[in-house]
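Feature request, filed as a ticket because there's no other form

It would be nice if the structure record came with a short human-readable summary line next to the tokens. Right now we just get the raw output. Example of a typical job, pasted below so the devs can see what we mean:
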Amino acid sequence: MLRVILIIFFAIIVVGTGFWGYQEHQEKNAILIHAENNYQRAFHDLTYQIDLLQDKIGTTLAMNSRSQLSPALADVWRITSEAHSDVGQLPLTLMPFNKTEEFLSNIGDFSYRTAVRDLEKEPLTDGEYKTLQQLYSHATEIQQELRKVQHQVIENNLRWMDVELALASEKENLDNTIIDGFKTVEKNVEEYSESNFGPEFTQMNAKNDNSFKYLSGKEITKEEAMNEARKFLQIEEPVNMNVTENGEGSDIGFYSITINSPKQNSEIYMDITKKGGYPIWVLNHREIGQSNISLNEAAEKAKKYLNDQNFKDLQLFESAQYDHVGVFTFVAVQDGVRVYPDSIRVKVALDEGDIIGFSANDYLIAHHKRKIPKPEISLEQARGKVNPSVKVMEHRLAIINDDLGKEALCYEILGIINNDTYRIYVNAIDGSEEKVEKLKNAEPIYEQV
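Raw output as currently delivered:
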């Protein structure tokens, strides 16, 4: 009897184990099938988007109406964004495909920047039209290569899961039709230089570069960088410093400095420009205790610190508190006009009131003496461009970067609608609405340094 019971018991275990194994196998297959279906969908969507892209760029070449050209170029931008999304869903992270993604990004940037400007006032130049022709030609080549891959995938019932496994195996000589096809696309795209986008595109991108072209002063040595760091951080006691040189020979050359301070029991990290020895950013990594000073007191300490470091004509623009740290944003002011591109951020620890964070990257890139134009529309005309439902609370002139990265003189109008506060920028030259921002929590602070 006992033997029968044991046989039945083990039989149940065997059957149960088999059933469990079968279920695990089914679930694993279901996951693999789901992943394969997602890969197939993303690939065919990508091929479809490239087809659309080639057609849409071709359509823009045949257009003569500027009112039709702007929405067509906006469509090109939308399609490149969707194509980017599809590429991101394919198992290509282990295979270089950055040139193709960069090419799609450049098409999107070119089309967006061209679409959002007033083509009635600034029609396409001959160079931009030539750029569109080149983009059409390159898009056609990419389309043809992807169609070849798509044909092979469908005809031979190829699986994307095999691509993922092949890439993960890190074999030197990968023999896979899909991988070979995408490598061909990448190789062809690599041959398209940035000059294919024309000088206009290059100039537009140059406006958004990260060079410190406005800095003055001579190039400093590592030793001088350490001395500048000591002065800026107000360090008098002995500390250990480690200096690394970065960006040698470039416009954005800088030194990275790590400081171990036994007195403060902290590590301080800092970047300082080679040209002129200006601090780019500072981070003092230390434990922060309970708050002992108010946010207003911390703001005063931040303002005094900037004054002591010879950062003049700045205005406290925004103030926020995160745990026991105060974060303050300052912007430059020239001739009574707030200049947003020239901004500096300061972090103050609310336990001891010392500066634990500093970022002047935007300020160092953009700050210079500007020739500010006179507004061509009045404040009343600018307020007339604002939604009538907005209750205007404050207004002033300001310089901001528009969607194309160009600086624009605007009327900055602060208003309330439905208990929410908005900052609205109306171009002071042509009256167009440049930007609308919804503010969080409290209204911004405006104080002169």
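Something like this underneath would help us a lot:
The CA atoms of residues 291 and 350 lie 5 Å apart.
The longest strand covers residues 337-349.
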